[in-house]
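The protein record passed on for reference:
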Amino acid sequence: MADLFHMLTDEERTFLDTLSRVCAKDIAPKAAETDETGTFVHAQLRSLAQTGLMGANLHEPHGAGISAQALLKAVEIVAGACGSTVSALTAHYLATDSLALGGTDALRARYLPAAAEGTLLGAFALTEPNAGSDPADMRTRASREGDGYRIKGQKCFISNGGVADFLIVYAVTDPEAAHKGISAFVVDKATPGLKPGRVEKTMGLKGGHVWELDFDLYVPSENRLGPDGTGFRTAMKVLDNGRLEVAAMCIGIAQQALDLAVDWAKTRIIGGEALAARQGIRWQLADMATDLHAARLIALEAARQRQNGERFSQAASMAKLYASEMAHRVTDGALQIHGGYGFTRDFPLERFARDVRIMRIYEGSSEIQRNIIAAHVLH
């Protein structure tokens, strides 16, 4: 098969080779234990920080400045090693992308260099109990108080929320202005009135924790990202990036599942012959490989548009929609090929199946992606 990433520079290929070695040595061997214990992936993120990956989504002078295509491949590599780790990594990207896209020069200088080095971890606080898919329903309020803002409200399902050093909090500053009344703020972990609640008990990604968060806190005006009312626009741009990264996560996990299914089909002997000799298995593997290849091509097209500075909302939604549903089909097919063994924890297939289930929900469910795509088609 042709090299789909032929556009990468020699420096990017060297970076990805180093990342692959670190993931094989420090990340993948811990994945099963992380899933069993539910321990947050602090150590894994420290290992990734040594490669420069924590700032790979940022351009100079704050980050590594790799291309969108190289970033897509990097996220895929980490996902293939550990779903929990890549979940925490991409949540960090959502926070730093918010600063890069909407923050002032002063805010960028204050947070992004340390975030890129991995000494500060970020979180992206958008989702609320009653405003999951439509931010216009947001109830967290940021009201003027002195020279700053009083933020009151609640968020839920916030990845990294309870361990992050800083959070990007989206809140309503003008309740009468709908989407144009949403603003974004940087909130430091030590800010009085920031109260992390419980860690949700999730089906998968058990080492990439999500928290409830309660707010009744004060932030100075300089912590606001851009003018009042620009938060929604920033969040939508950030989610375009995030949806492409979710696609890469799905591709990375699905690739591992397919590789395991191929190896199993070649070595598992039933009735005196390998499973791979059976037409039904061969056709299933062919469909899985085709599905995965299509998802990667769709994601690469979205990455190309992102790299060229084009509007890529539709492409990002297509990539996220197709890849998340592909990952379900491929991981489930790989588990089926393994039979009863796939259902045991001696193999990672059941973990893959649990980890990819959230991909059709977060950062915009499949239904929301279809609405976005349809809006572009009908425009």
In short: Residues 231-267 form the longest helix (37 residues). The two ends are 36 Å apart (CA to CA).
